[in-house]
Amino acid sequence: MAYIVAEPCVGCTFTDCVEVCPVDCFYVGPNFIAIHPDECIDCNACVPVCPVDAIYPDDELPAKWAHYAEWNAYLAPRWQALGHNLVEKRPESPPATDLSCADRPRSEADILTWEEDVSDETAP
Ligand code: SF4
Ligand code: SF4
């Protein structure tokens, strides 16, 4: 099992989650963050600190976001290889009390990648 970051994170990236992860398994893109499924130890520490309820254990992932398991497994290793392991809240991230991003529409199509991270045909 692993924990999964789902759609509510797209464009929010408060990054409070990374500070509580005991194994530093979050990898950040320009507007989304992914959990490396081979590194997560299922401790649940990140779930209560995410202001937009974006993180779920894979067996509790809402069906509409089931494919985010693939997105996390796809993006985390790529952003890891590019050196984008995040272990502290980013200074430019909004405070967890700023939920202005929470109600706007978003989708996986909005997920951005780094310029070096060229998409390939294995994307979910
Ligand atoms: S705290 Fe939630 S919204 Fe912020 S980066 Fe982590 S998963 Fe995404
Ligand atoms: S469940 Fe624990 S190990 Fe997994 S990403 Fe969250 S804080 Fe890290």
Task: Give a description of the structure.
The chain has helices at residues 16-20, 68-81; strands at residues 3-5, 26-28, 33-35, 55-57. The protein has one domain: Alpha-Beta Plaits (2-Layer Sandwich). The strands form two sheets. It has a two-stranded antiparallel ribbon. Strands 2-3 form a two-stranded antiparallel sheet. Strand 2 and strand 3 form a beta hairpin. The protein is an alpha+beta fold and 124 residues long. The mean pLDDT is 88. It is 15% helix and 10% strand. It binds iron/sulfur cluster (SF4) (2 copies). One iron/sulfur cluster binds at residues 3, 20-21, 23, 25, 35, 40-46.
- Termini separation (Å)? 19 Å
The name of the CATH topology is Alpha-Beta Plaits
Q: Give the number of domains.
A: 1
CATH class descriptor: Alpha Beta
Poorly predicted regions are none
Shape by Cα distribution? globular
- Helix percentage range: 10-25%
What small ligands are held by the chains? Answer: iron/sulfur cluster
Using only CA atoms, what is the Rg? 13 Å
Overall CATH architecture: 2-Layer Sandwich
Tell me the strand order in the biggest sheet: 1-4
**Secondary-structure element order, N to C:** EHEEEH
Mean of all residue-level pLDDT scores: 88
Number of DSSP helical runs:
2
Number of strands: 4
Find the structural class using helix and strand composition: alpha+beta
Which band does the percent of strand residues land in? 5-15%
Largest sheet: number of strands, sense, barrel closure: 2 strands, antiparallel
